[in-house]
Amino acid sequence: MSGKIFALFDFCETITNFQTLEKFLPLVAQKNPYYTHKTNAERREKFDKLGLIYPRYEALIDCPVDIVRNTAKEFLYNHIINNINKNVINKLFWHQDQGHVVAIVSGGFEIYIREFAKIYGIEHIVAIDLENSDDKFTGNIHGIHTMQERKLYKLSNMFNIKEFDLKNSYAYSDCVSDIPLLSFVGHPNVIECGKDLKWAKLLNFNILRN
Known about the structure:
- This protein is of the alpha/beta class and 210 residues long.
- It has eight helices and seven strands, in the order βααααβαββαβαβαβ.
- It has a seven-stranded mixed sheet with strand order 4-3-2-1-5-6-7.
- β3 and β4 form a beta hairpin.
- α1 crosses α3 and α3 (65-80) packs across α5.
- The two termini are 35 Å apart.
């Protein structure tokens, strides 16, 4: 009995042609009223004295949720939309037309990837959720950090994998760290974006050129 077909897409340097976190975090830092040299230094000293682990994303610490959400929307229209890999988005459209289960599986932030997904009718997002408290972000990740094999862990939490025909499913990524994701399906596709792809050729993965 045949099952559902996955079409799994990485986001950074796959759907987009750049690393999104590297551009998004500085934008948030500019708008976060609690992100100043003095505040950051005092906060780091406090965490150090208490022996606490400093939050991963300093730009987000204490930033109101509505500011980050608005920045995510601006980021979508000012940066993401104008930097989409056309060949990859056309593949995504093809999978939608075929009725495949399309999911973005990314180490980027869910908060802006979700905005992108709304435009293109993509329901399923596996990405970094951000922890918040009292309507402010803490700078920490909520749940699983979606990189490497952990993308599969979160994917398996979202879906009943037994319902899928993995041999006939597809995955798209540019990065060697996504070998677990690419190896998960029968049709792995590696996006050429100027990186060394010797690893992809050794593994006999299909290479998709932009």
